[in-house]
Amino acid sequence: MVKSFGLVVIAAASIVTCLSIIHGNKTGSVPPPPAPAITKNKNKFILENAALNYKNFCAGCHGEKMDMFVDRVWKHGNKKQDLYKVIKNGYADEGMPAFGESLSDKEINALADYILTGIKNVDKFKTNDRPVSDIFKTKKMTIKLELVAEIKDVPWGIAFLPDESLLVTERSGKLVKINKDKSLTEIRGTPEVLAKGQGGLMDVILDPGYSTNQIIYLSYSKPKTEGGRTVSTTAIMSARLDGNTLSSQKDIFVAEPYSTTQHHYGSRMQFGKDGFLYFSVGERGNEKENPQEIKGNDLGKIHRIKSDGSIPSDNPFVSTQGAEKSIYSYGHRNPQGLTINPTTGEIWETEHGPRGGDEINIIKPGNNYGWPVITYGINYNGIPISNLTEKPGLTQPVHYWIPSIGPSGLAIVSGNKYKGWEGDILSGSLRFQFLQRSVLSGSKISKEEILFKNIGRVRDVRMAPDGYLYIAVESPGRIYKLLPM
Ligand code: HEC
């Protein structure tokens, strides 16, 4: 099959070549094109030919968009010659067929070029040039990034107090208040955190009744010692903010089980329009045991609780024997973005996939989002985690990103300050150091724009009650307000 197709392509190539020669001869008055042009056309043809060959012979296993080659840790080398060898001889034991008999050397070389050129497209996301100005032209408007404050450590979450000051968590464990005059005050009484790996003091939000009760919520990586080892888990603390001190601290949720790993804590929080507290817990790097298990396991889940930690009576698994009653949805990897759609009240979430396959999801009660049974990503070592990207009963993402952008905070634009962005989804990119604007058409992402390229790792993005957007950027830590000009 493969072989005969190769022959068809070669035959087609010869026909095209013949036709152009005939055409050239017939119209004798037109001078023949100069030599370099011929070479160029030839290359173009070979590349088109490679695209066709890729589509027919390779895409089925390696992905239409070279999904599996993007971000690859190459096993057999990434030089053209290495690719040539693999394609020609295959690796039968690994499941890579040999194409030496079906494709000519020229075609194999063209395929190697095609892949190496194609994967370079991801480099358009990367450069080390920091922006030289704080004014950015975007497709819809010009934005000035107004520096609100510099933060020593990694700023993780932002909350807006009624007196126009801001609370910002630093991953190392500090909670700071940015006062209206831009001075910083440290808030005392924060929980002890394990500030290692991806852990530390993470998100901060206000109670919907903050103006009367002064209650805030902090998510953090909570350590304990078990059998002489330090283990940790994602926990949510509620506390009263009295002046510059927290009081009445109470852990309203502590995820089980604890883990020795120091990553995938999840930990974004949001109050829904129903008044309940939604928050994410990552699978802690153990996809085999955690995300698909709802009994006695809080990891790889979105939870829904009351503000005192008790369980709403209509939670999806309240009557499932042995299930954790706080679970709202499961099958998640590392959800790092959570926001409420201001129009629909839906809960929108972003999560880190493996290599490729970061997702945007709309969270529905009781749904299984499929990790690791289905995924658009592959393992970091290049080995597929699952060949499945969809399966009946498992919820599809609204959108997935290949290559992974490393999504962080999430916001949906509302109000009238940002003309042309209304209803758009903004997500921080940790990996590529920009803010991603995704345009929604119905429930699909139709267009995307990169904002503030190379600004630094964007850790959070929020809509403030004053109608302005704020972002938190890492190293050096900075909080910016987005001012349309
Ligand atoms: C039947 C599925 C299948 C088809 C078809 C296929 N491949 Fe592969 N290919 C594989 C597998 C499996 C591997 C080993 C991947 C791994 O270990 O992650 C591989 C490996 C490779 C590698 C080496 C990657 C590395 O890490 O060094 C290259 C290059 C490659 N394939 C190119 C191609 C090209 C070009 C085509 C089309 C002409 C093609 N493959 C068709 C399954 C396939």
Word description of this protein:
- With 485 residues, the protein is an alpha+beta fold.
- It has 2 domains: 2-125, Orthogonal Bundle (Cytochrome Bc1 Complex, Chain D, domain 2); 135-484, TolB, C-terminal domain (Neuraminidase), CATH 2.120.10.
- The chain has helices at 2-26, 35-62, 80-89, 105-120, 210-213, and strands spanning 135-137, 142-151, 155-160, 166-170, 175-178, 184-187, 201-206, 215-226, 229-242, 245-254, 266-271, 277-281, 301-305, 327-330, 334-340, 347-352, 358-363, 399-401, 407-412, 425-429, 434-441, 444-451, 458-463, 469-473, 477-484.
- The protein has a 5-stranded antiparallel β-sheet with strand order 1-2-25-24-23, with no helix packed on it. A 4-stranded antiparallel β-sheet has the order 3-4-5-6, with no helix packed on it.
- α1 (2-26) runs antiparallel to α2.
- It binds heme C.
- The site of heme C has 21 residues, from α2 and α3.
- Residues 57-58, 60-62, 72, 74-76, 83, 86-87, 91, 94-97, 99, 111, 382-383 line the site of heme C.
- List low-confidence stretches: 1-40
Number of helices: 5
List the domain count as a whole number.
2
Structural class: alpha+beta
Q: What fraction of residues sit in β-strands?
A: 25-35%
What are the secondary-structure elements, in order, as H or E? HHHHEEEEEEEHEEEEEEEEEEEEEEEEEE
Shape: globular
The CATH architecture of the largest domain would be 6 Propeller
Averaged pLDDT: 87
Give the N-terminus to C-terminus distance in angstroms: 60 Å
CATH homologous superfamily identity of the largest domain: TolB, C-terminal domain
From the alpha-carbon coordinates, what is the Rg to the nearest angstrom? 26 Å
> What proportion of the residues is helical, as a percent range?
10-25%
Q: Tell me the number of strands.
A: 25
Strand order of the largest sheet: 1-2-25-24-23
Write the CATH fold name of the largest domain: Neuraminidase
CATH class of the largest domain: Mainly Beta
| Bound ligand species | heme C
Largest sheet: 5 strands, antiparallel
